[in-house]
């Protein structure tokens, strides 16, 4: 009786092993097919959104690193952060150029770099308590939002000028809040502001990705 029971258990174990092996083979086959398959349009759209999320989030983080170093007189750290920030700008422009062409990418890079220079000016004005310099930088940034909105709208009619300008304005405002908090020495406030600024970039990435996908449905839609 015990022998018969053990045989039954052994038989069940073998059946389970065989079934498991069959499922594993099926899973492996499925994974192989997935790996070999060409990316779908939906996958390409998701990859575009993910790439923009990463690049724009990195932009804010590196900008905050640079301004914090500048405000606290850490020149070596500021130069390193500024170099990394510019490398990020080149990458963002490269992403734009890969869709709209090199000339558009180069034009984007020049425009994008200009707003970083304005942020630097605001930071210098804040560090030196020069309100006129701060005010000029803010005014320049507000004008920049309009110019940037017009630029993107000229490349993609699915990106309304005013909507883009408003998104970029909020980027400037949230980054300004980071700099102000850094200058005050309130680290908790600075990092709370940084989280808000970082999170906002996802909204810009989403708007850009959706507009690009709509413009090139065969490639991304």
Q: What proportion of the residues is helical, as a percent range?
A: over 70%
Give the biggest sheet. Answer: none
Q: Average pLDDT across residues?
A: 86
Radius of gyration: 26 Å
Number of structurally distinct domains: 2
Which class do the helix and strand fractions yield?
mainly alpha
The low-pLDDT segments are 1-27, 30-37
Textual characterization of the structure:
With 221 residues, the protein is mainly α. The protein has two domains: 37 residues; 180 residues, no CATH class. Helices cover 90% and strands 0% of the residues. It contains eight helices and no strands. The longest helix has 35 residues. It is globular and about 50 Å long. The N and C termini lie far apart (66 Å).
Features of the shown structure:
221 residues, mainly alpha, 8 helices, globular, disordered N terminus
In short:
The protein is an all-alpha fold and 221 residues long. It folds into 2 domains: 1-37; 41-220, no CATH class. It has 8 helices and no strands.
Task: Please give the structural blueprint.
Blueprint: H1 2-36, H2 41-71, H3 75-100, H4 102-127, H5 131-155, H6 161-184, H7 187-215, H8 217-220
């Amino acid at each position: 009786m015990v022998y018969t029971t053990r045989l039954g258990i052994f038989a069940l174990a073998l059946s389970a092993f065989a079934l498991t092996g069959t499922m594993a083979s099926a899973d492996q086959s499925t994974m192989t097919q997935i790996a070999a398959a060409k990316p779908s349009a939906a996958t390409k759209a998701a990859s575009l959104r993910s790439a923009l999320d990463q690049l724009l989030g990195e932009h804010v983080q590196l900008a905050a690193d640079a301004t914090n170093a500048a405000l606290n007189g850490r020149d070596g750290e500021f130069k390193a952060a500024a170099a990394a920030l510019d490398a990020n700008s080149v990458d963002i422009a490269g992403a734009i150029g890969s869709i709209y062409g090199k000339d558009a990418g180069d034009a984007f890079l020049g425009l994008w770099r200009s707003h970083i220079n304005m942020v630097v000016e605001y930071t210098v004005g804040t560090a030196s308590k020069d309100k006129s310099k701060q005010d000029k930088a803010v005014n320049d940034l507000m004008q920049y939002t309009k110019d940037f909105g017009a630029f993107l709208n000229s490349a993609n009619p699915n990106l309304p000028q005013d909507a883009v300008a408003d998104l970029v304005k909020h980027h400037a405002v949230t980054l300004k809040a980071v700099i102000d908090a850094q200058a005050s020495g309130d680290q908790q406030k600075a990092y709370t502001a940084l989280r808000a600024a970082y999170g906002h970039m996802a909204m810009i990435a989403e708007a850009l990705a959706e507009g690009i996908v709509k413009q090139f449905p065969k490639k991304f839609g």
